[in-house]
Amino acid sequence: MPMFLREFSSWMLRYRRTWKSTIVISVANPLLFLVAIGAGLGQLVDPSSLGGLTYLEFFAPGILAAAAMQNAYIEAAFVVHGSLRQDKSYLVAAATPLEPRDIMAGHMLFMAFRIGTSALAFAAVMAALGATRSPWAVLTVPAALLTGMAFAAPLAAWTVTVGRFGALNTVFRFVLMPMYLFSGTFFGIETLPDWLRPLAYVLPLWHGVDLCRTLSLGTATLLTSAIHVGYLAALTAGGVAVALVTYRRHIHV
Amino acid sequence: MLQNLEIRVPSAVPRWGGAHFLVFRNLRVHTGGNPWTMAMYSIFEPILYLLAIGVGIGQLVGDVEGVDVPYAAFVAPGLLATAVMNSALHETMEGAFVKFTQERFYQSILFTPVSLTGIVVGEVAWAVLRGFVTALGFLLVITVFGLVSWSNAVITAAGTLLVAFAFGSAGLAVTTRIRTWSDFQYVQLVLLPMFLFATTFYPVTVYPRPVQVIVETLPLYHAIQLLRGCALGQLGSGMIVSVVYLLVLGALGLVVARRQWARIMLH
C-alpha cells in the first residue's frame, strides 16, 4: 500500500466515529437553504427576471458549489489546524515512516472524499426536487468536488503555517463569506455594478458556481467549461505544490 | 447549601445579588474590550446578507404581497432580529459554556458575595447589553441607507432590548443542559431552520395555513414581527402578542436557568 493511503485510511477510521456530527453542517445546512430560499423566496421571484428559470433551478446548483467551498473550509482550516496544533495527529504520523508529503496527500484525499460525498447527497436531492434541467447535471458532482478542492488545497497549504486560531475565522468572515454571497449564488453577477463585475470573474467560487449551473441547466459550452475547469484545476495544483513545501517545513521542524 | 452560603455572608451580599459586578467584569474581559469593535464584528455578516439578499434578490423580486416597501427594507428588520438573537445567544451559550467548563469562572464566583441569582441576572443583563450594541450598529447602518426612518429606528432600538432579553435568558436556560461542544450542533439544527423559515426573507403568507401555524410558534418569528412592525412604522395590536410572548420566554428562561444553576453548582 502506498504510504499516503495509510494516512487516508486512518482518517477514514476516525470518520466512522464522527460522521454523524458532520451531517448537520455539511448536508443539513445547504439543504435547509435550498428548501427555504429556493422554495419560499422562489415564490416571490418572477421567472421572467431569470430568463424563464424558476428560482430553485437557478439557485440550487449555485448553493451546491458554495456548499463544497464551505466543506472545504471546515476540513482544510479547522481540521488541519487541529491536526498540527491540538491533537497533533500530524506529528504522530510524522513519527512513523510517513513523510510530510504522504500526510498531506492522504489528508487531501480524505478531504476530497468528504466534499465529494456531500456533493453527491446534495445533487441527489436536487434531482429529486426537479431542480435540474439536463442529463449533464450528473457532472455537477465532479464539478463541485473540483470547486471544493480548489479551496481545500490552498487553504490547507496556508493553514499549516498559521499559529493563531483566530486567523482562520478572520479568513472565513472577511474572505469566504463575502465570496459566498457575491459569486452568483443568490443572484446573477450580471446585476452587479459595472466596476464590481470584473472582480467577480476572478473569484474562484464564481467559476465553480457557473460551471455547476451551466451543467445543471444544460447550457454549458465547451470553451467556458474548459476555462472554469482549467482555472479551478490550476488553483488545486498550485495549492498542492505549495502544500508540499509548507507541510515539510512545518511538520519536520 | 445555597441558604448556607447566603446566610454566611448576609451583610456582604449586594442589593441586586451582585449582578452588576458580572456585567462590569464581562465588559472588561470581553475580547477586543471596545464595544464598537464588538458591534463591527456582529454586524458585518448581517450587512453582507442585506446587500446580497436585500439588494441582489430585491432586483429579482417584484412586489411582495402585502408589503408596500422595497424588499431591502422588508428584509432588514428580519436580519436585525437575527443579529440581535445571535449576539445575545453567543454570550449565554458558548460564552457561558466556556466560563463554566474551561475557565471555571462561576465556580470561583461562588466564593464571592455575588449570589446565584446575581450570576444569572448578570449574565442575562450582559447578553442584553451585547445584543443592544449589535442592534445600534446595525440600525445606524440601515438608517443611513434610508431603509428605516430615524424616528422608527429609535422605537426599533427599544424593541431589540426585549429580543435580546428573551433569547439571552432562554439561551442560558438551555446551556444548563449542554454536556459537550458537540451538543451545540443540535442547537444549530434548531437555530438555522428558524433563521430560514421564521419570515426573515418573505412574509408568512407564502406558506400554506398549517405551516403558518408552526412558524407562528417560533420565538424568532415574534422577534421579527415586533422589530418589523417598529421599523416599518406599522404598529398594530397584533404586536402585543409578540411582546407578551418574548416577555414570557425571557422570564421563563430566567426562572429555569436560576433553578438549574442551583442544581448544577451547589450539589
From TrEMBL, chain A:
Q: What topology does the record note for this protein and the membrane?
A: Multi-pass membrane protein
Q: Any transmembrane segments, and where?
A: 58-80, 108-130, 136-158, 170-189, 226-247
Which residues does the UniProt record annotate as the domain ABC transmembrane type-2? 21-250
The UniProt keywords, alphabetically, are: Antibiotic resistance, Cell membrane, Membrane, Transmembrane, Transmembrane helix, Transport
Q: Where found in the cell?
A: Cell membrane; Membrane
Q: What is its main location?
A: membrane
The record's listing under InterPro entries reads:
ABC2_TM, ABC2_TM_bact-type, ABC_2_transport, Nod_factor_ABC_transporter
Q: Which Pfam families does the annotation name?
A: ABC2_membrane
Q: Origin, by domain of life?
A: Bacteria
Family the UniProt entry places it in: Belongs to the ABC-2 integral membrane protein family.
What is the name attached to this protein's record?
Transport permease protein
Which organism does this sequence originate in? Streptosporangium lutulentum
Which taxonomic lineage does the organism of this UniProt entry have?
Bacteria, Bacillati, Actinomycetota, Actinomycetes, Streptosporangiales
Automatic annotation (TrEMBL), chain B:
Annotated ranges, domain ABC transmembrane type-2: 37-264
For this protein, the parts annotated as crossing the membrane are 38-57, 69-85, 128-148, 154-174, 186-204, 235-257
Which Pfam families is this protein grouped with?
ABC2_membrane
Q: Which UniProt keyword terms apply here?
A: Antibiotic resistance, Cell membrane, Membrane, Transmembrane, Transmembrane helix, Transport
Question: Does this entry carry the keyword Cell membrane?
Answer: yes
The highest taxon in the source lineage is Bacteria
Residues making up the signal peptide according to the UniProt record: none
Location relative to the cell: Cell membrane; Membrane
Stored InterPro entries: ABC2_TM, ABC2_TM_bact-type, ABC_2_transport, Nod_factor_ABC_transporter
Q: Which PROSITE patterns match?
A: ABC_TM2 (PS51012)
Topological relation to the membrane, as annotated: Multi-pass membrane protein
Entry keyword Metal-binding: no
Similarity comment: Belongs to the ABC-2 integral membrane protein family.
Q: What is this protein called?
A: Transport permease protein
